[in-house]
Amino acid sequence: MNRINSLADLRKIKDDLQAKIHLREKSLEPEKLVQIKVGMATSGIASGAKEVMSFLIEELEKRNIEAVVTQTGDLGYCFAEPTIEVTLPGQQAVVFGSVDTRKADEIIEKYIKNGEMIDGILPTNFEII
Amino acid sequence: MKELSLYILDIVNNSTRANATAVEIIVHENEENDRLYININDNGSGIPATELVKVCDPYYTSRKTRKVGMGIPLLRMSAEACEGVLSISSEVGTGTQLHVSYQLSHIDRPAMGDIAGVLYLLTTTCDNCEFNYIHHTSAGEFLYNSREVKEMMEGLPLQHPEVMKEIKRYIRDGLQQIKARS
What we know:
heterodimer, A: alpha+beta, Glutaredoxin, five-stranded mixed sheet, globular, B: alpha+beta, Heat Shock Protein 90, six-stranded mixed sheet, 26% strand
């Protein structure tokens, strides 16, 4: 049987990648980075959270914003999926609802870069102590 | 959901939420008897027998944040619409096995979809969980192991767009070589 597990191909590419990627020193203290959690439960996945997450990973890196993008369960806002929670360094977390790639772009440009509040923020029912 | 890959992502998220450290995803396209099998096995906390009978009920969930749990019921409905079945077995402390099958040529069978994107996401986002993806077709089998890929990419940021592109391309190439269906 034809078994495909050609890690060797990836290994070759790795050297090229290493040369191409300008490694930035990631800050070791995550609280100093922008933290984004993408809601990836059933409702999030069904409404396109995967695309939003790929978009965020790609665009934040391209736009030179140091951020950690992770996935999480949902927060109970299934009517407004995909939801993302954005925590700017030293600030309260803000949850945005109905995020498609266009909205994600707006969030990066306005909220993450300039701290400007935009439409689509969900009132969260929890307090972070 | 539109694609089977999204169902896979959803089910694997159940495994990681059950603290699984190893998940095995096996996709088998069997053209001879016109079946598509998907098996997802984990070593998570398992589901007690009293709860196991309820997992196909959309109004059952182990979460406290909401009252519905659609993941497994949706997958079962989609399979049953395509001459398929879904079954789950589980043992507390050992893990859970989910088995779903479809009629491969069924007109309503969702496409496999973006497997590369799903495997990439799982690789970058699950820190404590490694998974093994095996895809069989009549032309061969493709294996993807998240630990191998992470070790391979040691020192490179997995979330870098170039790294993302290459990992996805590697998976797509592999699937193409075994003529996996879209």
